[in-house]
From TrEMBL:
PROSITE patterns: HTH_LYSR. Pfam families: HTH_1, LysR_substrate. It comes from Paenibacillus rhizosphaerae. InterPro entries: LysR_HTH_N, LysR_subst-bd, WH-like_DNA-bd_sf, WH_DNA-bd_sf. GO terms for molecular function: DNA binding; DNA-binding transcription factor activity. PANTHER family: HCA OPERON TRANSCRIPTIONAL ACTIVATOR HCAR (PTHR30346:SF0), TRANSCRIPTIONAL DUAL REGULATOR HCAR-RELATED (PTHR30346). This is LysR family transcriptional regulator.
């Protein structure tokens, strides 16, 4: 069964533009345009109204797109059944993640690819809202974000699953007098120079902290972990982040950096979690990948508690 034209059709509807759809599909504009024209001619209807600003679905097109989605998902179910009978795992998995879990994903991805070499994995780092949008628009199959009380994923129409309970900690040079303390309080943190990793939840946490306790001297925010490490080691800065984000970083060894809990009121439960589209039939690839990821995170959770 050739589903290529249906895939082109769905991508054009999603992108609202033939050129954008061609870019996403990595094919020529003419290939997409010819596929749409061919289907419209074959079915005797207009699926899209074309204009200089892009394309919009006709009333008939809205019905057709819904059916095209359903057909593609049924075809994917058929493929999954065939692969299950043959004992093979093939396909593509698109994962979007906030930066901090990348160190956790490294081992999972490497081992998963060794086990299932025919799977094509695509992993991108993005901000949380971009990840939510991508999963909603079916540009990503799985999204890894931080779930907390102010992020109401259920309102987005997405399904979410908690994977790992996490909390914020402070990292400081082991040579600092502050490193001798078991915890860091609000006034102690406000007396420090702080460097931050560019992460949505870290930003929210610091904004909330400053609204409650007053301004903090934030030297810089960056995605460069080496720069954060040097600021802590050479200039006595404090960095804050989620506890798991320090665990697999070679630079943040215990003999270099002390990791301290905060002496602060509980913000409520916070989790590293995965989001997926509710109505989408999850592929064998995504199910297998989630099994591997959960197993790895269970081991990590146990080590964090020990």
């Amino acid at each position: 069964m050739n589903t290529e034209k249906l895939e082109y059709l769905v991508e054009v509807a999603r992108a609202g533009s033939i050129s954008k759809a061609a870019e996403q599909l990595h094919v020529t504009i003419s290939a997409v345009s010819q596929a749409i024209t061919s289907l419209e001619s074959e079915w005797g209807i207009s699926i899209f109204t074309r204009s200089k600003s892009g394309v919009t679905l006709t009333p008939e097109g809205k019905i057709i797109i819904k059916k095209a989605y359903e057909t593609l998902e049924k075809y994917e179910d058929l493929l999954e059944a065939a692969r299950g009978l043959s004992g093979t795992v093939k396909g593509r998995l698109r994962v979007a993640t906030i930066p901090s879990p990348m160190s956790l994903l490294e081992r999972v991805v490497i081992e998963f690819k060794k086990k299932f070499p025919d799977v094509k994995l695509e992993i991108v780092e993005k901000g949380s809202q971009d990840i939510i949008d991508d999963v909603n628009q079916d540009k990503s199959d799985l999204g890894l974000i931080i779930l907390f009380k102010n992020r109401l994923i259920e309102r987005t129409g997405l399904a979410f699953e908690r994977l790992l309970p996490v909390h914020m900690v402070a990292g400081i040079s082991s040579a600092s007098p502050l490193a001798l303390k078991p915890t860091v309080g609000p006034e102690e943190l406000r007396q420090q120079t702080v460097v931050l990793y560019n992460d949505d939840y870290v930003k929210w946490y610091m904004d909330d902290f400053q609204s409650l306790y007053g301004p903090v001297d934030v030297l810089f925010t960056t995605n460069n972990r080496d720069l954060i490490f040097r600021a802590c080691m050479n200039h006595g800065a404090v960095t804050i982040g989620l506890n798991f984000s320090f665990m697999n970083e070679p630079a943040f060894r215990k003999d270099n950096i002390a990791i301290l809990d905060f002496d602060l009121p509980d913000h409520g439960p916070v989790y590293l979690g995965v989001i997926q589209r509710k109505e989408k039939t999850h592929s064998q690839v995504s199910r297998r990948f989630m099994e591997w990821l959960k197993h790895d995170l269970e081991e990590l959770g146990a080590s964090m508690q020990s």
